């Protein structure tokens, strides 16, 4: 696709989010969420929320009557190759033969479709569409390390976009408060300590849109910054750091609650120098991000991570602007990136520069390559990231909680092909998305 075609698709996806959320019924599906699997199930969504969940046609008819909605049209026979039906303002979707899960939530990604979340409102719209069509119904927009003034400008863009669409949860600052020795693909000229005045500038520019900040706690003012961020309603994350075990424990006690892309850009586990990973393993308050693309973390260590952090792994993409595109030359912030075989590396030194991963692929790999039970893999892309940011309950950001197929939760729904976990249908906030 051309850049113009990507942008046109971005407009179509964004337009799908506006207007009233009409009553929606999906029936005949195999429901999978963090609580398990339910066969031959249906979901009724009203006004952007899940109203009821059940099994069987008779119980669905009862739910429709209770809601004052029309019965299933006689022509609608789930599983018989009938088309979806609109009847009296209700959309009936035949989900027979498909998997139905909550919408995916990505708390760490940088862009897609040749656009970066750092590059303003229009770029955000296009990059968001790239991930929406792959099932990510809600997303935190990760901003790369830049001069502080630039990061403030980018935060204001995220704030504007948040005000106009429900699928953007806010911003994640990955830097500039990270360790030079663990900078990865971040511009070393822009790294700095998290002095109080700098934090003040960023928080003021964000106007409440910052969800997460990744920092190296061992930097000067690191622990003070963690406490300040936590008190401001931001989730501090330990990452891109040289912190040892004791320093990491201190960071968690100060308020840090996320370990940014576990195994990457941090000290590994050594039997005499445990490092940050064992500190996170033993602290059940901490969620561990994991990039499951088979490249950032090899499959045996992906399996190990799920064993070390039961119910605490949040699958993330760390996706950059080349996501959904062909191999070639791209940018990550101001740095040149070469993508070959779908893997992104800095042109200058070969350092890994984010990924081209999408969450449907990450979930599918967890099940088909790693061998995880489907509910556990789905949990890692739905309920766990929601819980990491306090969005698994009623909250001022999304209103309805996220992460489960249950009454009262946001109507963020995916129909997935059981053969490969690819996306067939996306519903965000009760709106069926134009794919």
TrEMBL record:
Keywords: Carbohydrate metabolism, Hydrolase, Metal-binding. Residues 99-431 form the Amidohydrolase-related domain. It is an enzyme of class 3 (hydrolase). It comes from the Bacteria. The keyword Hydrolase applies. Its EC number is 3.5.1.25. The keyword Metal-binding applies. Pfam families: Amidohydro_1 (PF01979). GO terms for molecular function: N-acetylglucosamine-6-phosphate deacetylase activity. InterPro entries: Amidohydro-rel, GlcNAc_6-P_deAcase, Metal-dep_hydrolase_composite, Metal_Hydrolase. Signal peptide: none annotated. Gene3D superfamilies: Metal-dependent hydrolases, Urease, subunit C, domain 1. Belongs to the metallo-dependent hydrolases superfamily. NagA family. NCBIfam families: nagA (TIGR00221). This is N-acetylglucosamine-6-phosphate deacetylase. The gene is nagA.
């Amino acid at each position: 696709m051309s850049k113009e075609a990507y942008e046109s698709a971005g407009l179509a996806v964004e337009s799908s989010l506006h207007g009233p959320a009409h009553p929606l019924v999906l029936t005949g599906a195999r429901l999978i969420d963090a609580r398990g699997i339910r066969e031959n199930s249906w979901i009724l969504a009203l006004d952007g929320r899940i109203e009821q969940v059940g099994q069987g046609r008779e119980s669905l008819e009862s739910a429709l009557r209770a809601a004052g909605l029309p019965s299933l049209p006689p022509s609608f026979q789930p599983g018989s190759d009938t088309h979806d039906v609109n009847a009296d303002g209700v959309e009936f979707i035949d989900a027979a033969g498909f998997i139905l899960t909550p919408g995916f939530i990505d708390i760490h990604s940088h862009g897609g479709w040749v656009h970066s979340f750092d590059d303003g409102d229009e770029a955000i719209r296009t990059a968001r569409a790239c991930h929406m069509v792959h099932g990510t119904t809600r997303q935190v927009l990760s901003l790369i390390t830049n001069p502080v003034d630039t990061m403030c400008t980018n935060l204001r863009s995220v704030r504007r976009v948040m005000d106009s669409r429900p699928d953007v949860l806010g911003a994640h600052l990955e830097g500039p408060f990270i360790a030079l020795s663990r900078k990865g693909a971040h511009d070393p000229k822009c790294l700095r300590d998290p002095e109080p005045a700098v934090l003040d500038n960023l928080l003021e520019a964000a106007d409440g849109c910052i969800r997460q900040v990744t920092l190296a706690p061992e930097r000067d003012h690191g622990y003070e910054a963690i406490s300040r961020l936590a008190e401001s309603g931001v989730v501090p994350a330990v990452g891109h750091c040289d912190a040892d075990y004791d320093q990491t424990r201190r960071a968690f006690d100060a308020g840090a609650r996320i370990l940014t892309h576990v195994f990457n850009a941090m000290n590994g586990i050594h039997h005499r120098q445990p490092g940050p990973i064992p500190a996170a393993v033993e602290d059940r308050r901490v969620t561990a991000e994991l990039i499951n693309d088979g490249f950032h973390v090899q499959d045996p260590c992906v399996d190990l991570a799920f064993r070390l952090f039961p119910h605490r792994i949040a699958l993330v993409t760390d996706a950059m602007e080349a996501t959904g595109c062909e191999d070639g030359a791209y940018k990550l912030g101001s740095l040149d990136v070469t993508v070959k075989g779908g893997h992104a590396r800095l042109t200058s030194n070969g350092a890994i520069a984010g990924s081209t991963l999408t969450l449907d692929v990450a979930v599918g790999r967890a099940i088909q390559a790693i061998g995880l039970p489907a509910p556990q893999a789905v949990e890692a892309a739905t309920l766990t990231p929601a819980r990491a940011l306090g969005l698994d309950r009623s909250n001022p950001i999304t209103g309805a909680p996220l992460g489960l197929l249950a009454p009262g939760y946001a109507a963020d729904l995916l129909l997935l092909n059981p053969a490969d976990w690819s996306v067939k249908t996306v519903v965000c906030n009760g709106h069926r998305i134009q794919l």
